[in-house]
Amino acid sequence: MIFGNLSGRSTLFSDALAYDVATLSGGSFSDDPMRVLAVWDHFRDWASRATLTGGRAFAEADLGAPAPRPGQIFAIGLNYRDHAAEAGLPLPGDLTVFTKFSSSLTGPVSEVTLSGSSVDWEAELVVVLGRTARRVSAEEAWSYVAGLMVGQDLSDRVVQTAGPVPQFSLGKSFAGYSPVGPWLVTPDEVSDPDDLAIETRVSGVIVQSGRTSDMVFGVSEAIARLSRIVTLEPGDLIFTGTPAGVGMSAKPPRFLRDGDTLETTIHGIGSLRQSFAAAGEPVEVA
Predict the structure, then answer these.
(1) How far is residue 73 from each of residues 76, 103, 169, 178, 224, measured CA to CA in Å?
(2) Domains of the chain in sequence order
(3) To which H or E segment does residue 221 belong?
(4) Taking every pair of C-alpha atoms in the chain, what is the biggest distance, in angstroms?
(5) Is the pTM of this model over 0.85?
(6) Which of 9, 85, 121, 184: CA 20 to 30 A from 1?
(7) Residue 259 carries which DSSP code?
């Protein structure tokens, strides 16, 4: 099943057509994507039996974030072996976790205003929770996943590292710095949800090319470890880390510039497309 947010409304997608959930269900399910995610098991059961009628064509520019107001956004750092190697750091023994604030979320096609001259790209598989998870085992963790999305963890490296301690969450939460989508794809729609090809292109040049099977902590292990400490709720997001090829590790470093385009693709899920414009004034950091 492919579920998403079209012009702010809960939508099913099939064969390049969009089906409005509230209309199709006769009002049994909400037009608000977050309210649908809150009753995901019931919704998925209904959707598996629903006859799709009244489909219409749509513009990609009208797609919004599939989970637009998550209660929690978790992000995992150094979660790909090749990314840790390019950073010159040892593999972590446990999850390295920070957050991204929800005001940074945007849909899959957007123009982003750069916060400065050191904004980097990080292609990520994003997990959307579909059930409340507390002390979940790795063996059962996938059953708590509503679906998968493509994501970018855009990062202002100056802001991220400013101050006496790193400010990861602030440096990664400027407006538009968390594009996700283009929709939520249920795990059964892909041949192996633990092994997906992921790629980033900057102005047409491939800069990241990896597979999610290179994660240090895969999706199931990440959910299990997070849920030992926090309660995960339907609609929560987990950004699962990025493979090698980020701009700060290039020689010389290469960051996003005015006029650049960024395309992020995960095979079997879809693509994001961002364009970038320079800010009038860079962000000042202490």
Answers:
(1) 10, 11, 10, 10, 16
(2) 2-58 (no CATH), 73-277 (3.90.850.10)
(3) helix 219-227
(4) 57
(5) yes
(6) 121
(7) T
